[in-house]
Each structure stands twice: as C-alpha cells, then as structure tokens.
Amino acid sequence: VMNPAEVVKQRLQMYDSPHRSALRCVWTVWRTEGLGAFYRSYTTQLTMNIPFQSIHFITYEFLQEQVNPHRGYNPQSHIISGGLAGALAAAATTPLDVCKTLLNTQENMALNLANISGRLSGMANAFRMVYQLNGLPGYFKGMQARIIYQMPSTAISWSVYEFFKYFLTKHKLESRTPY
Fold it and tell me: Please, which domain of life does this record's source organism belong to (predicted)?
C-alpha cells in the first residue's frame, strides 16, 4: 500500500520534477509506465524494512537495558534509546534506500550515464548501477539526511508507545478490585 505513495513522493521531490501535484504524478506514471512502476522497488523496500526493523528493535532493547535496566517509565531513556536505534538502523540500511530511490525515480541522468535505455528494474540491477556510477560511496549518499529524519521519528514513536503502555498499564492496575 505504501510503495505507490513512496514512488509519488520521491518523483515529486526530484530536482526539476515534471509533476506538479500528486494526482498528476499518479496519472502520468500510470499512463506512461503502467501499474508496475508503482511496485518496481517493492522487493527492495521489503528487503530494507526487515533489517531496518530488526536493527531498530534490537538496538532499542539493548539501549534500554543499559540506560533503564528496571524498565520503568522514563521518557528521557525512551527518547534517547529510540533516537539512537533509529539512527543506527537508518545508517545500516542506507544502501538499500539508495537503490529503492533509484528504482522509484528512474532518474534520467543516472540512466543516461549508465547507458540504460528504457527502465531500470530489479534490486540487483539497481545495486550494479549505483556501484557503476559512484562506487562504494554511492551507496551512502543521503545517509546523514536519512539519519536526521529517522532519529526524531523513532524517538517520538518509542516515547509515545512507552507512554501509552505506562498509562494503560497503570490505569488497568488502578481499576482492579482486591479479591
């Protein structure tokens, strides 16, 4: 469900994007490239989300053990652990994000530089093209921006989750009647 929205967002964000609105972008992509254009990066998206979430949760749990070993409600520890977990997960999965973005945008300059006519498809082809055009550093383009985006996002998510867990647990305990 989210993959088509990501395609539209990234195409609107491209420098000198020909698309002036999300609906026009959807219509143009549908008409010129077909339904497959909205799912060209689907495998890459899934391949990125699994390690991202794994690293994210494992790191959060590890950091909570270090800074909040009693696992009490502690907003500061949840924010710090959540932000750092998101930063590490974002950094580790940036190469997959770079490839996903290339598949979603079909950026003309990159395709021309790689002598590709038509459309780029498949995660393996995207990995080869990124390496061909930029070498190893190409896989980490935008990493700082990705980390800056993910840190507050994951910090907020964890702090809200932990707040509601605390609030609902506390409310449930207070509403119990003694036997």
Answer: Eukaryota
Cα radius of gyration rounded to whole Å, the chain: 21
CA geometry: angle 94, 52, 86, nearest 5 deg: 85
Closest alpha carbon to 64 in 161, 145, 146, 171:
161
Q: Could you give all domains of the chain from N- to C-terminal order, each with its CATH number? A: 1-33 (no CATH), 46-175 (1.50.40.10)
Longest Cα–Cα distance in the chain: 76
C-alpha 83: how far from chain center = 14
* Contacts for 106 with CB less than 8 Å, ≥ 6 apart: 33, 37, 40, 119, 120
Q: Which residues contact 81 (CB under 8 A, 6 or more apart)?
A: 59, 60, 63, 64, 67, 68, 158
pLDDT digits (tens, 9 = 90+) for 136-178: 999 999 999 999 999 999 999 999 999 999 999 886 666 666 6
Nearest to 98 by CA among 56, 67, 134: 134
Please answer whether residues 28 and 14 qualify as being in contact, where contact means their C-beta atoms are separated by less than 8 angstroms.
no
Give the model's confidence band at 14: pLDDT under 50 very low, under 70 low, under 90 confident, else very high. Answer: confident
Ramachandran sector of residue 142 (left: φ over 0; alpha: ψ -120 to 50; beta: rest): left
Q: How far apart are CA 134 and CA 87, in angstroms?
A: 24
